[in-house]
UniProtKB/TrEMBL annotation:
Protein name: Bridge-like lipid transfer protein family member 1 C-terminal domain-containing protein
Region: Disordered, residue numbers: 91-125, 294-318, 393-449
Pfam families assigned: BLTP1_C
InterPro entries: BLTP1 (IPR033616), BLTP1_C (IPR056742)
Domain Bridge-like lipid transfer protein family member 1 C-terminal positions: 1-530
Gene Ontology CC: one annotated term: presynapse
Organism listed in the record: Homalodisca liturata
Length: 550
């Protein structure tokens, strides 16, 4: 019997896309040495809105989705190969019939063509392999705009007399994601029957992403064209302006630990019951405000509402708030310089210049319960390790931040003259005295070993020029009252962010900005491919240039 691996529902979904084309008079503004010139701009603007977005996952969700993908890929590949064998068998039988009736000359031509066919197919496969390797290599280096820039160079449009410039065209776009609620339940186990789970709730979230890519002349080679990319990400909570000003000390985002008090797991049949079970203890999520077909059917059968729209909190759950965030706004800007050729392992990694600024309207409230921190830490690590186990990544092969490597090297150098016992404790914890480490030290080291995402290698170095993260943090006592403020750096270190100035921008670049940049690049590429070069206009323009030159 099958089991659910992912539950998701969204209400009032609204998606819109629009393109924007701008061209300047190049005769009056052309200047190849002007670094700010923008002879043409092509943008794609996307807007994604919703009311409520609720998602339930477990430790095996990513693994099961990958298995589904591999199974489907294997199935369609086998179907494609079997179809090719059937058609090739039909073709061979037809060729035999024609050869028997057409004479020896036709048979000789058929045999000659059959002898040449494998070499052609091999060449095609090798070309496809090179192309696939090139695409994978560009994906590893996150070179999303090179192909699009090559497509728009000198492009002729039916609505414009002059073609697009050979270089200097600015490509990019914006992506807006906004809603009333985002709810995520991460169960601490392989299915939704686990006894505890983490609940991430966001109220009035808004994500605004913008990217621009332009070819510029390289400083090393005047004939080569590098790509300069500027990306900005703005994330806000409770600052959309759609609702009246929030009262003081209202939490706009919470991270909670939820535990089931009963021994036996639930046995539900409808999605409404499952989502009510997972999110009912959170006031931010407003799970019973979600449109439900089952509830509306029950109300219509009873002749009226059978229960309140906001039921009481489930008594079988224990909820503990780990973090409570106020209204805030976060700005991250990154600049990328990508060389004309893809760098290899021996080349210097490109540098990503970052600027990170945050604004908080109130305090951040944090629990004083260390067990809640360890629960959240173990939950994240278990998800990462489960994915790596299926993907085949050994723990030692995971990429780590440069600061961690430098710090470990410094500890090794400083402890080289000391005793062997201290070196084994301060190292990776693999010596005979590793068992003497405290539980907190073991958890911190295990988090450092697994702090990166699924990318095995990131061919970029990060340098944060501007860093502003200074919220006021207050701790929540057992009675629910706040006590003396605490430093945010200490909280981040306890969570494993020993170098937050580099780790946080790097995670946001990999987790949010890279995928959104890829989506916009694909959308612009598809739009340009639809508006192909008109052969009639191209021939007319070439004839005009020929007549003018003669």
């Amino acid at each position: 019997m099958g089991t659910g691996v992912l539950m998701c529902r969204v209400s009032s979904l609204n998606v819109s896309l629009r393109d924007e084309w701008k061209m300047t008079n190049r005769k009056s503004s052309i200047d190849v040495f002007n670094p700010t010139r923008r002879p043409a701009m092509i943008f794609m603007h996307g807007d994604l809105g919703w009311d409520q977005l609720q998602l339930m996952i477990s430790k095996s969700t990513t693994v099961d989705l990958l298995k589904m993908y591999y199974k489907l890929d294997e199935f369609f590949s086998q179907q494609f190969k079997s179809s090719k064998r059937v058609f090739s068998a039909l073709g061979n039988s037809r060729n035999k019939t024609n050869s028997n009736s057409g004479g020896s000359s036709s048979s000789f031509r058929k045999r000659s063509h059959a002898r040449k066919k494998p070499s052609v197919g091999l060449g095609d496969r090798s070309t496809d392999g090179i192309g696939n390797a090139w695409v994978a290599q560009d994906a590893k280096h996150h070179r999303h705009w090179q192909r699009v820039l090559a497509q728009v160079a000198g492009l002729h449009l039916s609505t414009v007399r002059q073609p697009l410039p050979a270089s200097g065209t600015v490509l990019g776009g914006t992506m807006e994601l906004h809603g009333q609620n985002i709810s995520l339940a991460c169960f601490h186990g392989i299915n939704f029957k686990s006894k505890s789970w983490a609940l991430f709730s966001l109220k009035e979230p808004c994500i605004s992403f913008a990217t621009e890519a332009q070819e510029v002349h390289s400083n090393e080679n005047a004939e080569a064209l590098d790509v300069h990319i500027v990306q900005t990400l703005t994330f806000s909570l409770g600052l959309t302006g759609e609702q009246p000003h929030a009262p003081e000390h209202q939490s706009m985002a919470t991270v909670c630990k939820v535990s089931r008090n009963v021994l036996f797991p639930p046995q539900f049949r409808t999605l409404q019951e499952w989502f009510h079970y997972a999110f009912s203890c959170s006031d931010i999520d407003e799970v019973d405000r979600f449109p439900s077909v089952e509830r509306e059917r029950a109300e219509s059968n009873e002749g009226g509402p059978v229960r309140s729209r906001t039921p009481k909190q489930d008594p079988n759950h224990t909820r503990e708030v780990i973090f409570a965030l106020p209204s805030l706004q976060l700005h991250l800007k990154t600049e990328h310089w990508q060389a004309a050729s893809t760098p290899d392992a021996s080349d210097e990694k490109p540098m990503v210049e970052c600027s990170f600024v945050t604004e908080f309207e109130d305090h951040i409230f944090v629990t004083v319960d260390a067990e809640a921190f360890f629960f959240l830490h173990d939950l994240i690590i278990s998800y990462i390790r489960e994915k790596d186990r299926v993907m085949g990544y050994p723990p030692s092969a995971r990429a780590q931040s440069p600061e961690l490597a430098e710090r470990r090297q410094a500890r090794t150098d400083s402890g080289s003259g000391g005793e062997g016992t201290s070196r084994s404790v301060e190292g990776d914890g693999t010596g005979d005295n590793a068992a003497n480490l405290s539980e907190e030290e073991k958890k911190r080291k295990s988090f450092e070993h697994g702090e990166v995402t699924g990318h095995t290698k990131d061919w970029r170095n990060y340098h944060c020029k501007t860093w502003h993260l200074e919220p006021t943090v207050r701790l929540l006592s057992w009675g629910g009252k706040s006590i003396e403020p605490y430093g945010v750096d200490y909280i981040l270190q306890k969570l494993g962010f020993s170098h937050a100035r580099t780790t946080i921008p790097k995670w946001m670049q990999r987790g949010f900005m890279d995928p959104l940049d890829k989506v916009l690049a694909v959308l612009v590429l598809r739009m340009v491919q639809i508006i192909r070069e008109d052969p009639k206009i191209a021939e007319h323009m070439r004839q005009r240039r020929y007549n003018g030159s003669s």
